[in-house]
Each structure stands twice: as C-alpha cells, then as structure tokens.
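Here is the promised in-class demo. Please do not try to memorize the tokens; focus on the logic of going from shape to residues.
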C-alpha cells in the first residue's frame, strides 16, 4: 500500500504543473490581447486627434488660403468639363521654307455652361486663334515651351473674348487667369510641317 501511495503522489504532482502551465498560458494570452487592443485603441485616438488638429490648423490659417484649399478639394470632387475645337490648319510665318501647322486644341472649362458660351462666340474665337497661329514661326512651335506659350495665349484670348475684356487687360491678368472660364488649353494634336 505504501507503494501505491508513492505512485499516486507523483501522478498528482505531474498534473499540478500541467494546471499551472495552462493557467500561465491563459494569463499570457490575455495580457497580450489587452496590450494589443489597448495599443490599437490608443493609436486610433491619437490619429483621430491629429487629423482634428490638422483641420483646426487649416481653419486657423489665413482665410484666403483655406478658401483656396477648400475650392481645390471641391474641384477634385467634380470631374472637369472639356470641349474640343475643330482642327486648325494655318500657314506659319516664313523662315527658311514654308511651314504649316495643324492644331486640335481642347479646352478645360470651369463648368458646363461655359461650353454654350464658347459655341456662341465660336466664329470670333476661331478667327482670333487663327491670327495667333498665323503669327508664329515653325521654330517657336517645335519645342514644349513654345507649345505651352501658344496654349496660354489661346487661353487668355478666349477668356478675354468670353468676358468682353480688352486684349491688353487680359494679358495683364494672364498669370492669375487660372480661375477664368477657360482654365487650360491642351493640344490633342499639333503637327508642324
């Protein structure tokens, strides 16, 4: 019988460490989950606070800057309106040999009603665009800077035509004219031969 008690005692002793190891494992897992969830919650509230602080700083900034920032956000929400002009084929100013340009401008408009205004002024816009193109040399249109200059001149001219401004006052406003009725001019084709 004494032998039986001795064999029972080690068996009970072996079960006791198993119970302790299960309890220890449960405690470690619970502590890990508390740390992970606590850290995630803290990160969420800190990020939420920093976003609120950034919004408050935007509002505290100068009114003109915040209005422009809000306007830019609004512009991205609404897709831009484009209208394509008919192709132009014009003989350029004489250089070493005769040259012609074929241009297909597309206009980025402030909003859809501007397209109707452009249609109403189309003969005048086409005439003035032809005059601008006819005043160019082939060498001016064969590089990106010359093409961008041409696009800006056409944009300023069309905005001046639509608002009935004089060409001189329109040229003075050229750099500030991004908020005009025609915001940009792009060429879907520009061939110089």
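The designed amino acids, position by position:
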């Amino acid at each position: 019988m004494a032998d039986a008690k001795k064999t029972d005692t080690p068996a009970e002793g072996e079960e006791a460490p198993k119970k302790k190891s299960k309890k220890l494992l449960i405690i470690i897992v619970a502590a890990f989950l508390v740390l992970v969830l606590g850290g995630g919650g803290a990160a969420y509230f800190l990020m939420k606070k920093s976003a609120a602080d950034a919004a408050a700083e935007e509002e505290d900034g100068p009114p003109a800057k915040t209005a422009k920032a809000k306007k830019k956000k609004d512009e991205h929400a609404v897709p831009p309106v484009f209208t394509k002009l008919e192709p132009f084929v014009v003989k350029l100013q004489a250089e070493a040999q005769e040259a012609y340009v074929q241009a297909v401008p597309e206009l980025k408009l402030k909003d859809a009603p501007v397209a109707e205004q452009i249609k109403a002024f189309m003969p005048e816009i086409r005439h003035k665009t032809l005059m601008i193109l006819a005043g160019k040399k082939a060498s001016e249109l064969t590089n990106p800077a010359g093409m961008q200059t041409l696009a800006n001149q056409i944009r300023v001219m069309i905005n001046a035509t639509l608002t009935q401004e004089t060409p001189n006052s329109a040229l003075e406003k050229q750099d500030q004219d991004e908020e005009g009725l025609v915001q940009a001019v792009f060429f879907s084709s520009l061939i110089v031969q």
